[in-house]
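User: Modeling request: complex.
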Amino acid sequence: MASTDQGVTSPTRARIDARTLRQDRWWLAPLTTFVVFSAFVVYATVRAFMGRDYYASPYLSPFYSPCLGDCVEGASDFGQPFAWFPLSAALIILIFPLGFRMTCYYYRKAYYRAFWLSPPACGVAEPHQSYSGETRLPLVLQNVHRYFWYAAVLVGLVLTFDVFLAFRPMPAEYAVGDGETSGIHMGLGTLLMIINVVLIWLYTLSCHSCRHVVGGRLRHFSKHPVRYRLWTWVSRLNTSHGRWAWYSLFSVALVDLYIFLLATGTIQDVRFF
Amino acid sequence: MSYTLKLRIWRGDKEGGEVKDFPVEVSEGEVVLDAIHRVQATQAGDLAVRWNCKAGKCGSCSAEVNGRPRLMCMCRLSDFEEDETITVTPMRAFPVIRDLVTDVLFNYEKAKELPSAQLGPRDADGKRRMAQIDVERGQEFRKCIECFLCQDVCHVVRDHEDNKEAFAGPRFFLRYAELDMHPLDTHDRRELAQGAAGLGMCNITKCCTEVCPEGIKITDNAIIPMKERVVDRKYDPLVWLGNKIGLRNKDDAGRTEV
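Assistant: Request completed. Predicted assembly structure:
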């Protein structure tokens, strides 16, 4: 679709009809983002609304952690204050990681390009007639990102706690040999949860709001050496924020899928010890 | 090793124009600007092109090569296949004057709207002092050569002429950030950046960073930090409360809003 008279074809500009003269495959990156993000949203929505098969002791799916609703036995390590909640327990907690990712500076770039085509790629005219950016409702709410970051830190702590719990002995019904219900245990699920929580922390701590909070907001680094040091660490992580965003998206879905397959009895946990 | 480059150049003015073929002999190691100059010397003596240093430092020869904003002097022909057609057009976000020359007045008008640094009083010995780590922070921003490729690629004004009044653009957000991080500056530009300069219109799609020939991380190091500073000023109730009850760090005290 050609741009409007307000854009690259407006009267004062060099008269060129094409919306872009780019010859490379500029559409590949936004298309990939669109397909992968859409697939994740579909998967996460289905899993969040299922309300079952999220716990295979000692593993708890990250979509349901902390499990604060009417959860299955053993899944609620922080009580069930929302036991009255009629829908899936995932819906109580998912709003926080979802909000964190929706307002994330990297994801904003990705979905503005891939879903809203604003712009689809650099130097490719967008199809919209008008544009007000993030100045009005609802997009002005993107400015609450730091609050979701605070929540994401708490969620990260809970997921870290879950990793420790994932070393617990498995219950008798999962045991495949003698003596496997005592002492600590480690399985493929534990390993996946460790990888996931590392990626979640890399994503959370590389956040632009984190970078601002730890030291970016200062004007005198020289007067705050500790915060300056923290800022340099976060800045180093921050250069790969987009990468951590993608990796942690895959890892969280993979852990959930693994636990789903365990909980439904489709597969057996691979035991390391 | 020379070969005939399939070069196409937009020729015209504000009344109209078109892309025309200018097959031209080029040699190994040459850049797009060399090819343009050869066309000017051998085929089209009246071809208008703005250039100066031929070293990527003056920011004059900004144009679009195959639809991508580039400095023509830094665009190597060896990056393209020898049988590939290269199309050179003027920057498409600014009014065209003639051929590859555009009117970039918009940027200078925006520069005028930005209050310059207002330094505080000198030390007792008549000097001003900044620690080295505070000096280093702004150095990246000072690499800007004002080629205005970031302004050209920014869809906020490229695709919406009507936004030009309300939007300063990435080059100037870079300047806002540099001054806001300056330890000796006494102006508080956060309200101005969000209001008059239209920082909120930026949706951080990072094209400015992608095209910057100096490799400045405009979005990550200037625009997003500036947006976070605006959140401190306008949208964060905890920061407001912290300031009111004196719990907030006084690092930015002593500044006056402009």
